[in-house]
Amino acid sequence: MAMRGETDKRFGPGSHVVEIKDIKKSFYVYVDEGQTVLSEKRRWFSRKKPGELVAIKSFTLDVDHGEFVALLGPSGCGKSTLLRILAGFETPTSGFVTFKGNAINGPDPQRAMVFQSERAVFPWLTVEGNIGLGPKLQGMGKKARKEAVAKTIELVELKGFERAYPKTLSGGMLQRVAVARAIVNHPELLLMDEPFGALDAQTRNHLQDHVVKIWQSIEQTIIFVTHDIEEAVYLANKVVVFTARPGEIKEVVSINLPHPRDRTSEEFIGLRNHCTRLIRDKHPEG
Amino acid sequence: MHGTVFPPLEIGEVLSTVHFLEILSAIFLILTVLNRLLPHIVSASLMKGLAVLGGIIVSWELISFYEIINPVLLPPPSRVVSLMAHLWSIGFLQTQIYSTVYKITYAFTLALVSGVTIGIMISYFSNTFSFLESFLNAIRVVPAPAWLALAILWFGIGHASAIFIIWLGIFFPILLSAVAGVAKVEQVQVETVLTFGGDKYDVLLEVVLPVIYHHVLTGARIGIGIGWITVVTAELVSVSANSGLGWMINDSRILLDITTVMVGMFLIGFLGIVSDAIINRFEGLVPGWD
């Protein structure tokens, strides 16, 4: 177990932004009235012996400042669980995770998260209100907040929609609000959990360019979870390919193509096919 | 409390049935013209509704006029209208309306604050306060009249007891709606606030309250309806004159003054619609997904 809350002396500050050292995450599986329930803790008064579901089995990875890492794998391979551990919502069963040399102990504004669901945007707040939520909770003054929000709105190209309520926005715009809300504080690390999974292909491509632009304009470390191979190769400079559950690293593919990338270039297609083969390996049926 | 303090209610001038039907036809004629001129305000569907209502009133009037049912037991609408006009002209009705509206508003405000607060306590802070839930459920199913004796012992005879009984009626729908609302808070909304460095109380302010808003509003609408239902029971504890519409109904019921009872019933129904419309106004204040 990691020493919670205190600096781990083995890692000097600043060497890596994120260090994941041999973590394992498993859940207890109970069946309640025919429904499967995952539980962190073992129940005290249960006659039945619970099953064990290993979401992540032995995972080690370092992420440096300014890197764009994509976690790629089939659904249920534990990549989202890993992201939730990095966000501080869950703790690993064994092994430890550090952020800037400190063990991760709960959520932190320095590790912002863009959720998969559009419903993470608050429908009762305007676009402005949603984006200003983070600064507000951190006690930023009204004037500074307004400035920061205006800047971010410009960056995600939502100008003119400051006063709009989420129910009037399209799915793509909602995800841009979600991204803007996460980056407005300039967090050190941006965690994105399949943010464009529910969008149509055209909007998705557009937003991918957006994310690259944001990543280039405000030097940021991004960890991006996806099951879309092309998306991972298009965005990241390091694609971590997972095995099927229990999640382990199959291979870390470095992508050294310059942005903007050409989806039809030979190198791109070669890398994409390589990743496809890596994922296919475990699923010969395809 | 046997009508000793009830002022003598002699109807100054009773509309004759013929006169009453004439007035009704005149109103209907004006509405028909308005329907032609301003179809947006006086719509066809409104006219249909009014026609049905008019038909009922006319048949009711005729039933009394031809004494198919004893007019003492079923006073004709002409008589009810005349009495209402008379009671209004001497200022008696206004006093009763004010007294009842005051009590209902008082009880409603108390119920809203206590219902939301306790609802959040037993659902959002359920680790500490969930033990209250079964206790409150037991109280909830006890009908309001059962509380009368206790209310009088605790709060004495008068407004305070009545407000307590009305509060009981409004409190539980609001409590239940607040609890149901808290259950609708999504994990991802909570986690959003947590990633921005917020704590449990920030989540309460930024997420829980906006989410439960619409649920509480529905609870408030059901609650105010029950509040009006309990008015007659609640004002059983009133003995002084000028103590509300419920008291007026109780007192004239004992004297078999059915006309006054009907005036009270009509006014409670009307005020019920008004209060519901006022609460409905708050619906659009906090936008949701649809």
Key descriptive features of the protein:
heterodimer; A: 286 residues; alpha/beta; Rossmann fold; six-stranded mixed sheet; five-stranded antiparallel sheet; 11 strands; 30% helix; disordered N terminus; B: 290 residues; mainly alpha; MetI-like fold; flat
Structure description:
The complex is a heterodimer of chains A (286) and B (290). With 286 residues, chain A is of the alpha/beta class. Chain A folds into 2 domains: 1-110 and 187-286, Rossmann fold (3-Layer(aba) Sandwich); 117-181, no CATH class. Helix content of chain A is 30%, strand content 25%. In chain A, the strands form 2 sheets. Chain A has a 6-stranded mixed β-sheet, with helices on both faces. In chain A, strands 1, 2, 3, 5 and 6 form a 5-stranded antiparallel β-sheet that branches. Chain B is an all-alpha fold. Chain B folds into 2 domains: 17-83, no CATH class; 92-285, MetI-like fold, CATH 1.10.3720.10. Chain B is built from 12 helices and no strands. Chain B has helices spanning 17-37, 44-65, 77-89, 92-123, 126-129, 132-140, 148-155, 159-183, 187-195, 200-234, 245-254, 258-280. The longest helix of chain B has 35 residues, at 200-234. Chain B is flat. Residues 1-5 of chain B have low confidence and may be disordered. The chains are: A alpha/beta (286), B mainly alpha (290).
